[in-house]
Amino acid sequence: MTELYPLFSLPTPWIRSFVRREGRLTLAQQRALNTIWPRYGLAPDQSFSQKVFPRSAPVIVEIGFGNGESLVEMASRYPEFNYLGIEVHRPGVGHLLLRLDQLGLDNVKVYCADAVNVLSLCLAEESCHRINIFFPDPWPKKRHHKRRLIQPKFAALLASKLELGGILHLATDWPDYAQYMQLAVSTCPQMRPIDPYALIPERPSSKYEQRGRRLGHPIQELAYRKD
Ligand SMILES: C[S@@+](CC[C@H](N)C(=O)[O-])C[C@H]1O[C@@H](n2cnc3c(N)ncnc32)[C@H](O)[C@@H]1O
Predict the structure, then answer these.
(1) Which domain holds residue 213?
(2) Mutate which of 15, 17, 161, 211 to test ligand 1's pocket (most atoms within 8 Å of Cβ)?
(3) CA of 127 to the centre of ligand 1 (A)
(4) Please, what is the average pLDDT of the chain?
(5) How many CB atoms lie within 10 A of CB 132?
(6) Is 18 within the bounds of a domain?
(7) What is the best residue among 87, 90, 200, 217 to mutate for testing ligand 1's pocket, by most ligand atoms within 8 Å of CB?
(8) Domain for residue 101, yes or no?
(9) How far is ligand 1, taken at its centre, from the CA of residue 122, in Å?
(10) Nearest ligand 1 atom, CA 208
(11) I want to staple 217 with a disulfide (CB 3.0 to 4.6 A). Which of 162, 173, 175, 196 is the partner?
């Protein structure tokens, strides 16, 4: 498998929204990263294009997919779309690869790299039909807020990658992060808030959502369309 983190760096420094926590890679996940990766994986310096899929179709990106269960479910439920997953956590990527292989899906590709780099360096402007970011790390302590993925600068990057009419769908179980997200996206003049509840049937419940519910956290959805 290709290098997890890109060897190149961006001209403007970004604060990482994650810490390198390898966690335990099961034998099956390790095997998946070695043997299934070539079918689904994209190298961190590889430009993304429709040509990586057998069929051209609108592209739905999921950033920070965790173990990939919701990505797999969406990709099998909606074969009329192509899906691109971006995740830094290798055990999660291994888990996703195992499921993709079991189901034989051919409408999913994966980057195992920082989404900031992938978006900045690999994705063309206006190439995404939708971008989903479900339950990004909340970084609840005030001194860590700078690590939150959704920041004005990142929101501008997301907006630049959406096609006209494209949708950004965010979900969180941290009320103050929801407010923070709203402020961040409101700095993008082209992004208009839309009713997020119209999109919910399409979002399978994720591991972190279930954890949030168990803890009694309210689940908040936000959605925006690029005009
Ligand atoms: C709290 S988990 C949520 C996972 C999943 N979306 C869910 O709802 O179960 C956030 C995920 O985002 C990933 N992540 C954080 N920053 C990232 C980045 N810059 N690029 C790609 N993935 C990132 C983390 O590795 C982690 O798996």
Answers:
(1) 49-226
(2) 17
(3) 22
(4) 92
(5) 24
(6) no
(7) 87
(8) yes
(9) 19
(10) 9
(11) 173
Distance 154 CA to ligand 1 centre (A): 15
pLDDT of 202 = 78
Give 41's strand partners: 110
Q: How far is CA 54 from CA 39, 51, 118, 123, in A?
A: 12, 7, 21, 18
pLDDT in tens, 92-121: 999 999 999 999 999 999 999 999 999 999
Annotation marks residue 106 as catalytic: no
To which residue do tokens 């990766």 refer? 37
CATH of the domain at 197: 3.40.50.150
- Provide the domain count of the chain: 1
E-only strand ranges, the chain: 41-42, 59-63, 82-86, 108-111, 128-134, 162-172, 191-194, 220-226
- CA torsion sign, 173 to 111 to 37 to 39? positive
Which residues sit with their C-beta closer than 6 Å to ligand 1?
Answer: 17-18, 63-66, 86-89, 92, 114-116, 134-137, 149, 206-209
Catalytic residue among 45, 101, 106, 137: 137
Confidence at residue 11, expressed as pLDDT on a 0 to 100 scale: 53
CB within 8 A of 142, min separation 6: which ones?
none
Q: Report the length, in residues, of the chain.
A: 227
Coil vs helix vs strand at 151: coil
DSSP letter string, 54-67:
SS---EEEEES-TT
Contact criterion met (CB below 8 Å) for 101 and 32: yes
Whether 108 is in a domain gets the answer yes
